[in-house]
Amino acid sequence: MAIWCARLAIDRWQLAEGPRADPVALISESAHGPRITAVNAAARDAGVRPGTMLTDARALCPDLAAAPADPAGDLALLESLALWAQRWGPWSALDPPDGLLVDVTGVAHLFGGEQMLLADAAERLGARGFAARLAIAPTAGAAWALAHYGPERAVLSRASPLGGGGRRAAADGEGLGRQTGPHRPAFGGPPPPEGEDLGALHELPVAALRLDPATLLVLRRLGLKRIGELSGVAREALARRFRSVRAPAANPLVRLDQLTGKVPEPLLPVLAQPPPLVQRRLLEPIRHRPLLDQVLGDLADDMVRVLEGQALGARRLDLALWKVDGEVIQRRLELAAATRAAAHITRLFAAKLDDIDAGFGIELARLTASWCEPLALSQRDFEAAAEAHGTSLAACIDRLSVRLGAGAIRRPEPVAGHWPERAQRWLAPLDQGRAAQESLAFHARPLKLLDRPELIAVIHASPDGLPRRFRWRGSLHEIVRAEGPERIAPEWWRERGAARLRDYYRIEDAAGRRYWIYRHGHAADGRGGTPEWYLQGLCS
Amino acid sequence: MDLAPLEQKPGRETAWWSGLASAKRTPASGSKPLPRPGAGEVRHAELFASSREASGAGLALAFALDQAGQDDQRPWLWVQDAAALRLSGRPYRPGLPASLRHRLLHVAAKSPEDALFALEEGLRCRDLAFVIGEVAGNPKALSFTASRRLSLVAEVHGVPLWLVRLDAARDLSSARQRWQIAAAPSLPPRWNPAAPGAPAWHADLFRARSHPPGEWILRDDGQSHLVAEWASPPHHGDLVRAVGDRSLAAG
After folding, report:
1. Is B109 contained in some domain?
2. Closest chain B residue to A513 measured between Cα atoms?
3. For position A263, what pLDDT does the model report?
């Protein structure tokens, strides 16, 4: 069964904003200005069509109101509709931007026949506020064609409505795996007369073959306007004309075979994956913390059991507590590694429950694992003491990030960058990072880097000689040894052209303290005044 | 760290259990710790250093490498509070010792209380090789009780802690060794005598549980072991106190 929600975008907008009697158009920004993507009934009556520019449409209909289109939201709605449409068949597939395909093989008798099934679908979609055109056919391609271009609520019950005698038999044999065939009337209603079906697909325009606009243009120039005309042309001629295109959307022969069921057309079904969810309804609303801890422990145990059954581990857990007055308290927990340890989960949540106000009491507690990762069952350690001893690294990281914040614990990773402060970045502690080429370590680097290089006053041999003495944080350092300069150029792909280079020196003062300092620019580079000196790193 | 074998380089023996994880070495909490070779290993040491130099953190890393050896490939934790981070900078991966740089986990704590919490959690973790802390000044949170907690956790779980105290006064602490650290002039490198050489530290052990105090110049020998030489010659003649003008009862 193909469902075409012909006005999905505007229907969704009207469901959100309420029905409007004045003309409204949904627009999207294009290179030449706003372009109309969907219109409501009043605007269509006024002559506004999707695809025109908004300014052109306003010439026709001056009081046209415009609202931004939301293709991503429409797609999300379509996904939820696809799941909902599984009430009519075991699985359904998306047909973006505004269609659905539902497999109703052997299902129609449950609704009292195909016509009744279509009527039921149309009624329920209409009740939800969506105008839809529906069709049932043996193949997805034929159903799509009928839904978009055929008569209202068309039902086609033969595998090969186009071919002559021998070809039809062959197609029937192949079509057994998909739908219908000779067994179909056993559980369907009586099939419609044969001639009507043949005519139904023959008379459809070639656009019903789901071809792209360029191919449609070619076919129109060839004078082929209806599917019947296309099947009248010799097959070899079509194969030769479109021999170089493999994509089904550009090759009418492939589409024609998909329509008749000679070529299989795999569809990607939409599967609902409900997140693991456990909840407790409480007989008496609870107002005290020890009881809440008890409920939380029970929930964690239940969740661990659910996760274990699916061989999953939780990475993110959402705890929602419904209060008697209707307010919902939500707490979220992110874990460093997939886990199934109830005690660990309870302990981490307990730190987040200190500030909640139970009010008149909590009557429902629900724990959802909104992000899971596969976690196989693992064997316990042979030595029980080693397992019970201390915590694992992931548990330690979880405890630290719950108390100190998510970004407090991190791991450095090398990055290809010229400037030292950009040669490392910080990742989440268990993030593996990207594989990178090890940089060639020609030069010694300091143990620590100040977050901001600090300005120092330096006496150095003129004009560009070694530094001799510097003052940092109020005290004077006599430099006895120095190595440099190591010249590091600015990153030309990131800096402006006038950025100054840096000359780095590794120095040691009279007391043995070792630093990493640089001169920002040099005197003759013409990119500013006298270069300044900075202290950036402290060596061990 | 055991100082007695440290002075007899290079003939340093490695203990037979060094390949086992520390979790297996130490019995679970509650039972009495087993006597074992190398019991001179230190679990909690404090290094007092100035925030104007990175010698405290550098020597803490050298101590940790010297004690842990090259075999241990577990990650290690470096905890800094906000003041220490601002004063003495952030760890820089290319400058860390090559065997440590890929295993670093860094914690930037906002307050000394958070830093102590992170240190304690790190010490409880069986997957960490060692923990290094950097706390600036003498915060109220780092009391004697807090340091006692750290000592006990480190000894029960067998994870060593090197706590660097930046610009701090020598307050009460239960650390097993307490050092005063300063940078020392390095030996001139072989190929460029005018350049700074491998790091050296002037280390003054002023309080230790199992070792007499002393002053040394410590250097890294290039194979992640420390070599020590006396900074001031030991006074072997001072074992008997000079007789002074005081009564015998005063001791």
Report:
1. yes
2. B183
3. 87
Name the strands in the sheet holding A65-68, side by side, starting at the edge strand that comes first in the sequence: A33-39, A24-30, A65-68
Q: Select from A385, A424, A481 the Cβ nearest to the Cβ of B27.
A: A385
Residue A252 tokens, joined: 């009418």
Asked whether the predicted pLDDT for residue A3 surpasses 80, the reply is yes
Using DSSP, state whether A421 is helix, strand or coil: helix
Chain A, chain B: beta-carbon pairs less than 8 Å apart: 186
Does a structural domain hold residue B73? yes
- The rounded distance, in Å, linking the Cα atoms of A60 and A55 is 9
Please enumerate in sequence order all residues whose Cβ is within 8 A of that of A79, keeping only pairs 6 or more positions apart, or say none: A94, A270
Distance of CA A115 to the CA centre of its chain: 37
Please confirm whether the linkage preceding B10 is cis (ω < 30° from 0). yes
Beta pairing class for B104-109 and A409-414: antiparallel
pLDDT for B157-188, tens place per residue?
989 999 999 999 999 999 999 999 999 999 99
Distance CA A217, CA A221 (A): 6
Per-residue confidence at A357, pLDDT binned at 50, 70, 90? confident
Q: Look-up: residue for tokens 């209060």?
A: A323
CA distance B5 to B211: 12
Average pLDDT over residues A214-232: 88
DSSP conformational letter for A436: -
Point out which residues pair with A516 in neighbouring strands. Answer: A506, A537
Is B127 close to A393, i.e. CB distance below 8 A? yes
Choose from B125, B162, B164 for mutation: most chain A CBs within 10 A.
B125
Q: Is B181 inside any structural domain? A: yes
Q: How confident is the model at residue A170 (pLDDT cuts 50, 70, 90)?
A: very low
Q: Check: CATH 3.40.1170.60 for A27-68?
A: yes
Q: How many domains does chain B have?
A: 1
- Alpha-carbon Rg for chain A, nearest whole angstrom, is 35
The dihedral built from the CA positions of residue A385, A387, A393 and A395, taken in this order, carries a sign that is negative
DSSP B192: -
Test A447 with B92 for CB contact under 8 angstroms: yes
ipTM: 0.79
The answer to whether residue B34 is domain-embedded is no
- Residue among A221, A226, A230 at smallest CA distance from A251: A230
User: Helix A393-404 crosses helix B112-124 at what angle (to 10 degrees)?
Assistant: 170
The residue range of the domain holding B156 is 3-9+19-28+39-250
Which DSSP category does A269 fall into? Answer: B
Strand partners, B204: B180, B215
Whether B187 and chain A come into contact, CB under 8 Å, resolves to no
Q: Does A403 touch chain B (CB under 8 A)?
A: yes
pLDDT value of position B229: 83
pLDDT digits (tens, 9 = 90+) for A481-540: 999 899 999 988 888 888 899 999 999 999 999 999 999 998 888 888 889 999 999 998
Domain with CATH 3.30.1490.100 in chain A: 277-386
Sign, CA dihedral A531-A534-A536-A540, equals positive
Nearest to A403 among B62, B106, B114 (CB): B114
Do B183 and A537 make contact, defined as CB atoms within 8 angstroms?
no
Contact A483 B28 (CB under 8 A): no
Residue linked to tokens 């090789």: B129
Amino acid identity, residue A241? R
The residues pairing with B220 across neighbouring beta strands, listed in sequence order, are B226
The CATH class that applies to domain A277-386 reads alpha beta
Q: Is B124–A386 a contact, with Cβ atoms under 8 angstroms apart?
A: no
| CATH number of the domain that residue B108 is part of | 3.40.50.300
Gap from B239 CA to chain A (nearest CA, Å): 32
CA dihedral A405, A407, A411, A415 (to 10 degrees): 180
Q: Name the residue of chain A whose CA is nearest to B110's CA.
A: A404
| SS3 labels along B84-106 | HHHHHCEECHHHCCCCCHHHEEE
Q: Range(s) for CATH 3.40.1170.60 in chain A?
A: 27-68
